[in-house]
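Predict the structure of Thymidylate kinase.
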Amino acid sequence: MTTASPPAASGAPVQPTPGPGLFISFEGGDGVGKTTQIRILADLLTAADVDHVLTREPGGTELGIEIRRLLLHGGHVAPRAEALLYAADRAHHIATRVRPALERGAVVLADRYLDSSVAYQGAARSLGPQEVRDLSLWATEGLLPDLTVLLDGDPDLAERRTTGRGAKDRLEQEGDAFRVALREQFLTLVQTEPERFVVVDADRPVDQVADDVIEAVVAAVRRHGARLTHGGAHQGVLLGLEAFVEAAARRSAAGSDQESRS
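Done. Here is the predicted structure for Thymidylate kinase.
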């Protein structure tokens, strides 16, 4: 696991997470295991009785479901139209689902966010990473996650995993050059915003990947809790986050006991 200063300033201002909630996004190419890791993390949050929301882009709202169908299961979409459709989905998703959850103090787990657009449309589609990033920041009023977990995997292995899932969507059908360019752009994003990203090697067994993901989230929760404590409010949120840290510690201890017995 590699922990990774804010990027150079651009025309779109970046805003802090609204309210006491915690916003965590998961990124990476298709087939790296984002859905699996989000579910493992969600189970821990449930065990700690922490208010949390699982969502995805595109498709986290009713409007998003229709946009997802057009983007992933429809016919050809011109690259600039593709970028604008993702931005439209993101604008509605943040305004109607993510911000309200953060404002009430929930943990939001998002399967993809603006970094996917920067990597897919900005780099792999050659539309310009900064231009696409600025478009998304405008659409979301500058909202960035508190933590972004990049599941980094070998594109060939990830491609074999997507093949095993059955019929591929429009983006999963892209060729090797596209997948390599996508991975390179994600890793470039880590270099420009190392304070937000954590890179996790996704080519290992699921439990090993989960250990690193949970470690990164615990660190983010502790940073977030320190901010809330400094603010002197949101005690209910703090108690929930402390319970999550305890649940994560129990999971780690159980894993260590199992290894020592094997």
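Residues 2-9 have pLDDT under 50 and may be disordered.
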